Amino acid sequence: MALDPVIQTFITESTELLQEMENALLELENSPDDKDIINALFRTAHTIKGSAGVVGVEHVERFTHAVENILENVRQGKIKITNDLIELLLNCHDHIAKLVEMATSDEPLSEDFKSTEDDLQKQLHVYLDAVSDRRIKTQTKEPVAREPEFDSELNTSSGKTVKNKNWHISLRFGRDVMRNGMDPVSFINYLSRMGEIISLTTLTDTIPSAEEMDPESCYLGFEIDFKSDFDKQTIEDVFEFVREDCKICILPPRSRIERYVHLINNLPESPLHLGDILIKGGALTPSELDEALQMQDVETVSFDDGQTEEHTRKIGEIFVDEGMVHPPVVDAALEKQKEQKEASSRESKTIRVDTVKLDQLVNLVGELVIANANINQNAQRIHDGGLDESTSALTRLVEDIRERAMQVRMVPVGNIFNRFQRVVRDISRSSNKDIELIVSGGETELDRNLVEKINDPLMHLVRNAADHGIEYPEERITKGKPRKGVIRLNAFNDTGSIAIEVSDDGGGVDHNKITNKALDRGMVRPGQVLSEKEMYNLMFEPGFSTAEKITNVSGRGVGMDVVKRNIEALRGTVDVESHEDSGTTVSIRLPLTLAIIDGFMVGVGASFYIIPLDMVIECVDLAEADRRVTDKRNYFNLRGEVLPYVRLRTLFRENGGKTDYESIVVVQATGRRIGLVVDELHGEVQAVIKSLGGIFKHVEKVSSATIRGDGTVALILDIPKIVESMGGVEIKV
Amino acid sequence: MNVNVEKSDGLSRLQIEGEMTVFYAAALKKDLLDNLADCSNLDIDLSQVSEMDTAGFQLLFLIKREAGLSDKSMRITAHSPATLSVLKLYGMDEEVL
What we know:
The complex is a heterodimer.
Chain A: H1 5-30, H2 35-55, H3 58-75, H4 83-101, H5 111-137, H6 141-146, E1 167-173, H7 184-193, E2 196-203, E3 221-227, H8 232-238, E4 246-251, H9 257-266, H10 271-281, H11 286-295, H12 308-321, H13 327-347, H14 355-382, H15 385-408, E5 410-412, H16 414-430, E6 435-440, E7 445-447, H17 448-469, H18 473-478, E8 485-494, E9 497-504, H19 511-520, H20 532-538, H21 560-569, E10 573-579, E11 583-591, E12 596-604, E13 607-612, E14 616-621, H22 624-628, E15 635-638, E16 641-647, H23 648-651, E17 663-669, E18 672-678, E19 680-688, E20 702-707, E21 713-717, H24 719-726, E22 729-730
Parallel strand pairs in A: 6-8, 13-21, 16-18
Antiparallel strand pairs in A: 1-3, 1-4, 2-3, 5-7, 8-9, 9-11, 10-11, 12-13, 12-19, 14-17, 15-16, 17-18, 18-22, 20-21
Helix pairs in contact in A: 1-2, 1-4, 1-16, 2-3, 2-7, 3-4, 3-5, 4-5, 9-11, 12-13, 14-15, 16-17, 17-21, 19-20
Chain B: E1 2-8, E2 11-20, H1 25-38, E3 41-52, H2 54-69, E4 73-78, H3 81-89, H4 93-96
Parallel strand pairs in B: 2-3, 3-4
Antiparallel strand pairs in B: 1-2
Helix pairs in contact in B: 1-2
């Protein structure tokens, strides 16, 4: 069977909630008394449990329920937050995450898994038992304290309450409930697990005649009498998923008779019919019903007149008018409703979109850009004033659309940064180190596809830093460093790319050790002098330093080749800088997007090349004097600065059409600047990136290609590669 | 979902197999009403129903009501755990049975 969309939604939402839960737990570790965090934590567990119950993923519901119990007690101050408890809750979090993952499979849980669960349950119960022990001692106080809570919204002055000790719940499901993938059965099933259903009456009056009845619509209503110790909010939350599709009225135990009058008035069924149901279910006694029916005339509000919110406000006003309630009580209730309304309207401001759809959109925009370029070229040939004007208007719009389409795919990189807190915490615990992860620049945005792909390399780097970079506290103290090691994760925008740095203040790498190891492995010849950069590059060689782990230094570089490969596959670069005892910094540079770039087109011979626009600094003419000596030297004087340059003609072995006139495009990448000598400058273009096929994999200095308006191909230059091969001039920033 | 029909002397025996859920509700409604129109006594065997949801329940209720309106008799001759649990939950096990 195909994956149920409801289950799918459940999994997505639970995954988000689990992330929130983890963040909250980690924050709690630093500030164990923060009420807001505790409440947020409780909410996550509660919502996961609730939705698991509704969609019928029982094992998630069961286990999360135990966690929720603990958190409820924490919230009430009955259980203190300790590091051990946080540890336990983190483990529970992991377990829930696995359970959620398995929600789609029908396979039974493995034995191993079950024993983990039992173990966690046992540990949770230790905490719960401690609380219930205490509760027995204070039992006499407990019920008295809880009593008023049942009907706190109505501060009774006349004391005319019904005798019924159960909740009364009236449900009228909306027509579309089942079409939206929900089944009233599951809600009532879930409700029944929170207490005891004393009586349930199914109302079928609204099922229309056979011809008119739509078999996919829901026509049912329910009157339920329900015994439970949960509070009103919790019971309301059972129906959270259908709140908008369903009319719900929940009357607490010992409600005032007036509330039943409202109920009877506000439900579509006839008062007598409802009265019978209420008596049958034990909600009202016959004499209470009589009284209610007499009072009924006072009320005029009908069920149909609009939204529940407005409705309740009216009831609130009536109560105040009649002096039944103090205004602040109603104000508070109304305020709460407003908040809930705002929260749900915030939710509706964002929608979930399948990334496949987004990719299709971006692809189409790419085609649009190409088609537009084609129109531009033809328009230029025709030289018609009106046409030129139209095409330039069109081009502007296409550019805007392109930009917006790309923005839609941008997500803050901070989303993945937060995942690493847990990794660092776990490593520092298991290895008895004291490490702090400081995250900055999380708001920097990056193409969604990229974000997912850098997760693994980053994880690797962070793990490496925590595992091998940061020293043990004793070692740090003897070195005169603070006991606590720091790993920094920083992201920022940098000339058309985004840079992510993972740095630590740990042991760093010993340059001599690297050189020696490279000698051992025959990677360098004895006597060969390595530049700092070359030496760091050795660390990215496959298999380098996986060998003998004599010192903590030798562990570094495990799998660094994989990191490098992954990043390069994304057209990014990796650099390392490391100094013994002062730490290591790994910088990753990635292009902002993988789909369309602003480019600067140049011509050499008969070919076209595109330079990513944000790497272009300026264009200057190559002076005749410099031209004459280009064969002898490859640098020129740019306003007093020595700038190395390379002729694209030589680089790509272009032979055709020599010109007398050449220009230099000054480009900058990875903090270095060089000049590129070209024949012609064609100006700015939007280039839709088309990757080159596998056979061009080994072509260096070209990152990809684009199709021009007339169908010819222009190659997109890999500027960082070219700069790297040239050496370049270091820019002092 | 699958509906097997057996007819003899104005008595139709329906056996419903598989899911009585919202996904098959339209087909099920037609099957039930057509067969009811065709006979004077309708027996429905639910023992092979693997799953029933609210949509299925509504249709059972509808057919029972229709039978009553047209003075025909309709009985459910056998239940499966799936159908019984929904009817019990809705407190309708005596009404529809």
